Amino acid sequence: MAAGIRTSRNGSDVAVVGGGLVGLAVALGIQEKGQQVTIYDEGDIAFRASRGNFGLVWVQGKGDSYPAYANLSRLSARLWGDMAASLEESTGIDLQLSQKGGLFVCLSESELSQRANMLDQMAANHSEGYPFEVLDHQQLKEMVPEIGPEVAGATWGPEDGHVNPLYLMRALLKRFTSLGGKLINSAAINSVQPINGQFHLHSADGRYVSDKVVLAAGLGNKKLASMVGIEAPIFPNRGQVLIAERVKHFLDYPTGHVRQTAEGTIQCGDSKEDVGFDSGTTTDVIADIARRAVTMFPLLKDVRLIRSWGALRIMTPDGHPIYQQSEEFPGAFLVTCHSGVTLAAAHAGPIADWIAEGNPDPVLNLEKFHANRFQV
Amino acid sequence: MPTDSRFNRLPVSEKGLVSICIEGQTITALEGESVAAAVLQAGVRPSRTTPVTDSGRAPFCMMGVCFDCLMEIDGKPNTQACMTEVRDGMVVNIQRGARQVLGDDL
Amino acid sequence: MNSNQFDLAIIGAGPAGMSAASTAAKQGLKVLLLDEQPRPGGQIYRNIGSPALKDRQILGPDYYYGEKLLTAFSGAGVTYLHGATVWEVTTDNILYVSVKGESRRFEFNKLLIATGAQERPSPFPGWTLPGVMTCGAAQILLKTSGLTPPGPIVIAGSGPLLLLISCQLIRAGIKIDAILDTTPGKNYRSALPEFLGALKGWRFVLKGMRMLSEIRKAGIQQLSGVTGLSADQDESGNLSAVTYYDNKGHQQTLSCSSLLVHQGVIPNSQLTRSLGLAHVWDEVQKCWKPELNKWGQSSHPDILVAGDSAGIGGALAAELQGKLAVFEIVRQRDAGSATSGNNEIEQEKAIQELQQQLVIRPFLDRLYSPAEEFMSPPDETIVCRCEEVTAGEIRSLANDGCRGPNQTKAFCRAGMGPCQGRQCGTTVSSLLASELKASPAQVGYYNIRAPIKPLTLGELATIGNADSNC
Ligand SMILES: Cc1cc2nc3c(=O)[nH]c(=O)nc-3n(C[C@H](O)[C@H](O)[C@H](O)COP(=O)(O)OP(=O)(O)OC[C@H]3O[C@@H](n4cnc5c(N)ncnc54)[C@H](O)[C@@H]3O)c2cc1C
Ligand code: FES
């Protein structure tokens, strides 16, 4: 980029606000291009989807009525293997990525046929094909013998997988800092001011200047985006997740509601609740989640729940990401989505390239992710 | 080199006795005492191995906070031995690493 | 009021819970008392209803004092559930408790948390080896089973319980091979200014001196100023010896079959934390405790805390706090009515007695403040027993930018195992604090959420089902 004239010693080429999965992935991608990136993040307690999510690298059904999003998810899933390998090589952290396919288990016939219809529709919209299979109870049982008698069947997506999202974060951070990227913790950015083609970021105890700013502050984006001339309709949607004790390996594939992690723990989720900024847990919801889990896999009945938590998804009205450069203040970018695990490889790759160098890869279909789609 | 790992019983007040089987060895325990106590008296050490590195552990806190006394009690894996009372005929085994899933077979 | 509704639910049947229960019943409250142990008594009066030991000299009168409390509470008409593990309390006055694998739901007007203390996790290299156990655990084995650990026995650490268990074993005729006192020398200096105040609690001072002389008379090797404690293992992975530096800085090794360790006790704050109650870091007691007024009222209007879970004060203080909390509940109930003020005299008396009980604390807390090596142990020490995470890993995460225990938990699993952080929480906070040159208050603590104790998915799945009583 054109030599950044730094007006402050705290300055950097690119400031990324938010050190969650989205911020870290984008920041790493830009830092890898040789630009100096600084991430500004909050302290130990914050609303952090990155720490509370379910760990799926998921394609099946994503963007069912929005091909651009479906394509982006598939692209990212395809880039994931390389990203995981290179992160493991450079950091020594095994992300526990497994992309052997995933199941969406349906308890009733109507749930199953609805889902099958949805996937049929997607296949019709994707001329290059959209792989999936519908499995009835018997077919599913052959694949996963532990399935319960009340289960109707499942849909199978060969491109789905799962990963340890916490190790993903740790590896992204480690790689980022090893390349010279800077992380400023405990610095909630309260405002972003565009001044003479640069951006001034203010926190309670500092002011930072950069040539570009990437807003990846999750739920914090709504407020910050408006300061750089972007209207971002973002709202929280709570998910509760349960983690049960380590058990010997029995489940080969992730499912939309239950997965066994590489450590052997059982993760069950996830609810979708519109409760505002409350990341707590509620007894009724965790009981519902447990009910679904033991119906899917009755052998989980005597397995003990160790922890539960609530986390807030970062939602938009249509559920799809927003990727946008401010027209009013070029150099300011908004990056926000609710599937930061799945999309991590896209964020660290083509999205970061676009921010660092301009000229988005046409395959991204970036114009489809502009927030002006919400202005009807 | 210390060899005996068995806890010793002081003179106790009149209490009922129960028989339990720990790792195939039948021992007599006091009615109302915990499985962990019986296991310590039997000298079974370690009483579990960890799912992380397979290292040996034994009851540590005896008050339900450390979870190092997890054992397989009457077929139920990962049960806190210090919080479970002995019962005549009980079968207790070392918890080796991660537990099995059993579900309805219980 | 239906059978699942209570004026007062009390969690914990130790001295605080038992005295609160009988006081409340006398005041006409409908009381529910829950405890996960199979018998009432709490930690100090464990098994007091059917003591195991024939010889009452061994545990001494302080233990059997509990019989009085038990009698008072047994006749009081309280609904008491034992083997009852509370796994969730909500801020809208509902609690869920697991009894024999089945969950029940209760509603309460007021809740008294009297869940007591746990021993401070005191990590040192080798503390996970079979053969190492806490002094409290050894004492529980005496109380419930009349069992004593196999010799050679070494006792190591600091605090009143260390002396007490030593004396109890001596009285039982058990040989203790050595007592390694890790109380830092500087504590004697910092405690000294509190000594005059402590003399007002002369009964305690006397008790302490009697214990010390009992140990001396037994001719037990007692070393002060011990540092660098570590436990060694034999080829089968069990404890074989303890290694330490004596107060001259010479490394010594003692072979042993049992190593009993202790570094004081800290409030059991899992429940108070899960409720989101305000907590403060007590720099002298080096632990977290809920923020309370003098009646034990927490930041939630319907939740009170008494006994050691409110801050460490000992059994007699707990008993008084339990009473005071009930007086406060009754005062709130009667405010403005004709009966208001009925308990004032008794209440005033309890407050004075409580002050008398607590007069020794500033001295004890300073004297027995844990040595730095247990708050911030050497790198190779396992701090999270469940997930086997070392102090070195926590330190390196601090250097990589982690600012608090929830971040380190996410990155290395410390605090994610079945003990739910009980054995590593304070250590991780203080490790991070020392690494980041901050106080534990700034660093914070794990977010604690339901379930407070693990429960099966199958049991959880019954909640809200039409055919369950939940
Ligand atoms: C229950 C649940 C399950 C999920 N499951 C999956 C899944 O299976 N697969 C998948 O791909 N995705 C999943 N996700 C989504 C994924 O976790 C998120 O997409 C991703 O974490 C979002 O990353 P983020 O960086 O935008 O947001 P966050 O992780 O929330 O990070 C935002 C960061 O910004 C910081 N911040 C906010 N405001 C400011 C400010 N003013 N100044 C400085 N810093 C600020 C915050 O402290 C935080 O660190 C799930 C989410 C939830 C809630
Ligand atoms: S010995 Fe600690 S939980 Fe049982």
From TrEMBL, chain A:
Record key words, sorted: Oxidoreductase
What lineage is on file? Bacteria, Pseudomonadati, Pseudomonadota, Gammaproteobacteria, Oceanospirillales
Please report the name of this protein according to its UniProt entry. Answer: FAD-dependent oxidoreductase
One GO CC annotation = cytoplasm
- Do the record's keywords include ATP-binding? no
Output the Pfam families linked to this UniProt entry. Answer: DAO
Looking at the record, the residues that make up the FAD dependent oxidoreductase domain are 13-354
Any GO molecular function: oxidoreductase activity
UniProt xrefs under Gene3D superfamilies:
D-Amino Acid Oxidase, subunit A, domain 2, FAD/NAD(P)-binding domain
- From what organism does this protein derive? Amphritea balenae
Specify the domain of life of the species encoding this protein: Bacteria
Q: Which SUPFAM superfamilies match?
A: FAD-linked reductases, C-terminal domain (SSF54373), FAD/NAD(P)-binding domain (SSF51905)
From TrEMBL, chain B:
Any Pfam family matching the protein: Fer2_4
InterPro entries recorded: 2Fe-2S-bd_N, 2Fe-2S_ferredoxin-like_sf
- Which is an annotated GO molecular function term of this record? iron-sulfur cluster binding
The keyword Protease is assigned to this record: no
Q: Which residues form a coiled coil?
A: none
**Out of the domains of life, which is the source?**
Bacteria
Q: Which UniProt keywords apply?
A: Oxidoreductase
**Name by which UniProt lists this protein:** (2Fe-2S)-binding protein
Q: Which organism is it from?
A: Amphritea balenae
Automatic annotation (TrEMBL), chain C:
Pfam hit, one: Pyr_redox_2
Identify the residues that the record assigns to the FAD/NAD(P)-binding domain, covering every copy.
6-321
Report the SUPFAM superfamilies cross-referenced here. Answer: FAD/NAD(P)-binding domain
**Organism encoding this protein:** Amphritea balenae
Q: Does the keyword Lyase apply?
A: no
Keywords attached to this entry: Oxidoreductase
The protein's matches in InterPro entries, at most eight in alphabetical order, are given as:
BFD-like_2Fe2S-bd_dom, BFD-like_2Fe2S-bd_dom_sf, FAD/NAD-bd_sf, FAD/NAD-binding_dom, Metab_Enz_Cyan_OpOx_G3PDH, Opine_Oxase_asu/HCN_bsu
Q: What is this protein called?
A: FAD-dependent oxidoreductase
* Entry-linked CDD domains: GlpA-like_Fer2_BFD-like (cd19946)
Q: Which PANTHER family match?
A: ANAEROBIC GLYCEROL-3-PHOSPHATE DEHYDROGENASE SUBUNIT B
**A GO MF term:** oxidoreductase activity
Give every BFD-like [2Fe-2S]-binding domain span: 382-433
